[in-house]
Specification:
The chain has two domains: about 190 residues, 2-enoyl-CoA Hydratase, Chain A, domain 1 (Alpha-Beta Complex); about 45 residues, no CATH class. Helix content is about 50%, strand content about 15%. The chain is built from twelve helices and ten strands. The strands form two sheets. It has a six-stranded mixed beta sheet, sandwiched between helices. Strands 4-6-8-9 form a four-stranded mixed beta sheet. Helix 1 links the parallel strand 2 and strand 3.
């Protein structure tokens, strides 16, 4: 009897709108092959089009999030990794309008590091470690690590991480603002799901718009970002339906009344 081929990318959807993507090549520490990259890009395209999915969680099977590109397939991967945006998982993650939570278990190395930086919120387990090995192997970054990391942790720290190959362990990653929080390994997915559920409770349309304005504004100067926010706010309110205004006013009135009763702050 022939064995069934391994599913390299697993997708699980919950009834409340959470989709969990798992890189599933644990014996290879989830190192990426060309096939995995194509499948991951296709999964993000499909989830973007799925109206039932509100939040996406990305994690890895086994003891590692992603150990980078499988070097046995490096030539095939690097020669084609930017030619077709439909097959580029980072392009599809950047285009995704839905919040992406990275649940980082163990190693996130080079391409795995870049996958994590394409997420909107990062939760790491206490064994997580972020490593940039581009300079070790003579691989030029093309998934954003050279530009995103300095903006998150600072230019000098990023130089140390990338040029000296300094690993960033979980506690340091949290202190530097690279990850939102660190939890014990058994609690990683639970913590990611709790964050996803908190997001889902909010106004779905504005969650999508807010993610977009943060993403697009970060590419601009502060002055241009403020103008962008103002422009999108005007557009948002101009297209708000009367019943949406009424619902917002009702919510604000109820919150104000509750604040007066309890004496609590907003």
């Amino acid at each position: 009897m022939e064995s069934q081929p391994q599913q390299l990318i697993l997708v699980e959807k919950s009834s409340n709108g959470i989709a969990t993507i798992t890189l599933n090549r644990p014996k290879a520490l989830n190192a990426l092959t060309r096939e995995m990259m194509d499948q991951l890009a296709a999964v993000f395209r499909a989830l973007e089009e799925d109206a039932q999915v509100k939040v996406i969680i990305l994690t890895g099977a086994g003891q590692s999030f992603c150990a980078g590109v499988d070097l046995t397939a490096a030539s095939e991967v690097f020669k084609g990794n930017t030619k077709d945006p439909n097959d580029d998982p980072l392009v599809q993650m950047e285009k995704c309008s839905k919040p992406i939570i990275g649940a980082i278990n163990g190693f996130a190395v080079t391409a795995g590091f870049e996958l994590s930086l394409a997420c909107d919120i990062l939760i790491a387990d206490s064994k997580a470690k972020f490593v940039d090995t581009h300079c070790k192997f003579g691989i030029f970054p093309s998934w954003g690590l050279s530009q995103k990391l300095p903006r998150i942790i600072g230019v000098n720290r990023a130089r140390e991480v990338s040029l000296m190959l300094r690993p960033i362990e979980a506690e340091v990653a949290e202190r530097w603002g690279l990850v939102n929080r660190v939890v014990s390994p058994p609690d990683l997915l639970k913590a990611a799901i709790e964050i996803a559920e908190s997001i889902i409770k909010n106004h779905e349309g504005l969650v999508v718009e807010y993610k977009a304005v943060i993403r697009d504004g970060m590419k601009l100067s502060l002055a241009d970002g403020l103008r962008l926010e103002k422009e999108r706010a005007h557009h948002y309110y101009a297209n708000m339906k009367p019943e949406e205004f009424a619902a917002m006013q009702k919510f604000i009135a109820g919150r104000s009344a509750n604040t007066r009763r309890t004496g609590s702050k907003l």
